[in-house]
TrEMBL record:
Gene3D superfamilies: 3.30.70.20, Aldolase class I. This is dihydrouracil dehydrogenase (NAD(+)). Keywords: Iron, Iron-sulfur, Metal-binding, Oxidoreductase. Belongs to the dihydropyrimidine dehydrogenase family. SUPFAM superfamilies: 4Fe-4S ferredoxins, FMN-linked oxidoreductases. PANTHER family: DIHYDROPYRIMIDINE DEHYDROGENASE [NADP(+)] (PTHR43073). InterPro entries: 4Fe4S_Fe-S-bd (IPR017896), 4Fe4S_Fe_S_CS (IPR017900), Aldolase_TIM (IPR013785), Dihydroorotate_DH_cat (IPR005720). The keyword Metal-binding applies. Residues 418-446 are annotated as: Disordered. The lineage of its organism: Bacteria, Pseudomonadati, Pseudomonadota, Alphaproteobacteria, Hyphomicrobiales.
Amino acid sequence: MADLSVDFVGIKAPNPFWLASAPPTDKAYNVERAFRAGWGGVVWKTLGEDPPVVNVSGPRYGAIHGPDRRVIGFNNIELITDRPLEVNLREIKEVKRKWRDRAMVVSLMVPCTEESWKAILARVEETEADGVELNFGCPHGMSERGMGSAVGQVPEYVEMVARWCKQHTRMPVIVKLTPNVGDIRKPAEAAKRGGADAVSLINTVNSIMHVDLDAMSPWPHTGGKGTHGGMCGPAVKPIALNMTAEIARSEVTRGMPISGIGGIETWKDAAEFMALGAGTVQVCTAAMVYGFKIVEEMKSGLSDWMDQKGYSRVSDFVGRAVPNVTDWQYLNLDYAVKASIDQDACIKCGRCHIACEDTSHQAITNMVDGVRKFEVIEEECVGCNLCAVVCPVENCITMVPLENEVDKRTGRMVDGSYRNWTQHPNNPMAKEPVAYDTDAALEPAE
Ligand SMILES: Cc1cc2nc3c(=O)[nH]c(=O)nc-3n(C[C@H](O)[C@H](O)[C@H](O)COP(=O)(O)O)c2cc1C
Ligand code: SF4
Ligand code: SF4
């Protein structure tokens, strides 16, 4: 059976599934329930200086639901912990003593002065926690006070605070990044320059979830006024995966440990982050929506998949997909696929035809010989896969690569050759254009 244990910047845990800093990790009661359920670690809800912040006493959450009421996107206008520092520190110490084998990381956010960071780090060290995570990500409330994403959006501040923290603690320092930036590599590089041991990402995405058209106010609202909040949940996973990959493949930050966060609900979501370079993953929304027991499926699913693939430990596949992430200009323009419809599975709903006919390439029939039939016209199909996206029957439409055959649309032989945009004759900037060998031999399509 696969070994799920991890050693992340010296922090050991029985599995890579950690709870992200948020309400599920706000107090001993929750964290102990989580550990009993099997979570490998937690990042304690962000601590700040006393007196504690004050949250609104009203709706703090907004959501985008799918047609089946599944929560696809979730947002919040909560702040960091609103419990006294002393209480949190005492509970962290008690829980860590009881659960020695689990990772206990403490999230922190204090004003941007060296004294503030030095003081809180000393107090966290006394709890015997395994590490700290610097919350440079929260996009609402705290950022207006010069903390959270107000720090994370300025690489110089990220570097400065990371450096202070490394100077004033022996604990590993993880910098949690905000996605509300133009280029995620910049704050990650700054964290590295500051000496941080790792980065975690993403925190929440700035958002207004809905407008209440009766109240004429953003939802959630407090007495008729609303504010932007931070969005998370499955809808942000693609953003988080891309940012994880950008850091994992950047020349400057390559190899820097990453804790992946954003929309993780299943073992497969987690494995995707890990394939893109994350050594551990963190979960918030899925735990809030479905409860702590989801970790059971995560552990068994990951373990079964690793057994199937022959990976005996997590590090065997962490980062494996990174070499296959490239820039658009290096994609093979000589590769080609065609859509193929499984006529037995097709329920003749016509959605593929309408999508392709109205908005794409007019490459799917709706009538053949006077009979309702959906067939791909290979002479027109560009292989864009819109039809497969809209088809309600899973795997009814598949994309089939051409191999050693003529593409009926272009009239060109597809023979496994490789030519990217930097080599393409249509690119005026191409230094050494590579022409098709077969161009002269083949008739272009009508
Ligand atoms: C209600 C709520 C409160 C949160 N509070 C914090 C916090 O105090 N500190 C922090 O670093 N991140 C906080 N987050 C962000 C999460 O830790 C996490 O980065 C984000 O939700 C993305 O993960 P998810 O898609 O699994 O929810 C909070 C998220 C939610 C939903
Ligand atoms: S792959 Fe694109 S072009 Fe081809 S049939 Fe489907 S929608 Fe049309
Ligand atoms: S969308 Fe799918 S099921 Fe509907 S007609 Fe097209 S192939 Fe058939």
